[in-house]
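seq as requested:
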Amino acid sequence: EVQLQASGGGLVQPGGSLRLSCTTSGFSFDDYTVGWFRQAPGEEREGVSCISLSDGTTDYKDSVKGRFTVSVDNAKNTVYLEMNSLKPEDTAVYYCNAQGTYWGQGTLVTVSS
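struct tokens:
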């Protein structure tokens, strides 16, 4: 059974940083693409970043380029999203997804002073 769990959210001031973790199990870690998505109140869910676990290729939403970094720890089957220079508009529930199919529970990120 494929399982994903996002964690690491919290309250942070504008300009601050957070690192989200997506722990995974139940699939061959090297074969999948894992994506980070977010959903702000009243908004549709949107893609933020993704990483191909087979070759490490990454992609980012334009508004987070240069601020967010996605990475992977193969030994821990975990994908990270390092978020720096956070802005109030980054406030959302963040989710991780595998292969566009499997979703984990989200973690809330609130950027506010």
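The CA atoms of residues 8 and 68 lie 14 Å apart.
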